[in-house]
Amino acid sequence: MIKYSNKTDGGVPPVSTASLPDIVFMLLFFFMTVTVMKDSTLKVANELPNASEVKKMEKKDRIIYIHVGRPTEKYSAVFGSEPKIQLNDKYAEVSDIGTYVLEQIGKMPAHLRPYATISLKVDKRTGMGLISDIKQELRKVNALKVNYTTYDGDAFMNLRKTDN
Amino acid sequence: MKNRGETPGVNAGSMADIAFLLLIFFLVTTSIETDVGFNRMLSPIDISPPLPYNDKNILLVQVNHNNEILVDNELVDITDLRRIAVAFIDNGGATLDSEHYCDYCQGERSVFSSENPNKAVISLSSERDTGYATFIAIQNELVGAYNQLRNREALKLYGVKYTDMESEYLNVTSKGRKAKLKEKIETIKRRYPQKLSEAEIK
Q: How many domains in chain B?
């Protein structure tokens, strides 16, 4: 008698999933290297303007962030729709900026303090008045290095939708 | 007895699930942030009276609350701004016998515009209701004008673009090379210093 093996009876062999963990790990490492931890949740809309003639910023350890924009939908019922300043995790007034910046500079190691840079992350629908007030506060505490943080892109894109 | 001396293999079937969990965790808690922008130095609060500046050495750029741009009191389109700024900085109006004579300028050498790139100041003023987006677009054009001139000089002197030198400077590791690059960058910067002032809002 002849025995037929029923191994190859026309069915497709199942795809091996043995390399799946390796693939996922690769993805994981990719995301771990290109992203950074969120240090604060944004309470303001923060769509930055585009610019093309920009420079890369210096290392993160010497940068102090100031976010400016309209309160997000969740908060707009309470705080209105006028642009507000966010420092760390909460809304702040213009007069709070000086203290905040000095406090942050104080937390830095001494050798970095002269290089402290204030990164202004300002939503593109904000008026220059508020920004001017912020700059004035920064000058008062002698924190003069600022960076208008933008997205990399075409600057003329900014002008298309300036209304609303 | 079976299996004596052999440890059974660990089941790796759930490894993929664990890795997925980690991946999703990182996706949720992190974000890709931008790290580009315009570096600016604010002027310190100073009560001494401003230095006298010759009118022809100042290019007055004003933006009103309708986001319209006035250059020396004339309405211009933002697409022309870069050209106007280049013409102004590169003018080199000082005469040959003057101490401010600019031998590398390629401008028109008009007597009504700036004398030397070292003296040319662009003053940018805005109103309270000017949009930040317009302000950044203007900054972009003005910085673009400086970059254009600096690139031209760098290509002439060293055969590389200034902007390429700058980005290389951030990545270069060898000390000797870095020092050399810095010297080149400084030379170009001395030829076309970025004198861009942001006026206070009145």
A: 1
| Whole-complex ipTM | 0.77
- Say yes or no: A155 contacts chain B, CB-CB below 8 A: yes
Report the alpha-carbon distance of residue B196 to residue B61 in Å, rounded.
10
Q: What is the pLDDT of residues A22-34, one digit of tens each?
A: 888 888 888 888 7
From the candidates B80, B128, B136, B168, which should be mutated to test the interface with A, based on the most A CB atoms within 10 A? B136
Residue B82 belongs to a domain: yes
Of A78, A62, A41, A77, whose CA–CA distance to A119 is shortest? Answer: A62
By the 8 A CB rule, do A63 and A39 touch? no
- Interchain pair A36, B133: CB under 8 A: no
Chain A residue numbers with beta carbons less than 8 Å from the beta carbon of B200 are 132, 136
Does the model's pTM come out above 0.90? Answer: no
Contact B41 A127 (CB under 8 A): no
- CATH classification at residue A66: 3.30.420.270
**Alpha-carbon gap, residue B169 to B183, rounded angstroms:** 11
Distance from CA of B155 to the nearest CA of A (A): 18
Q: Which helix (H) or strand (E) holds B167?
A: helix B162-171
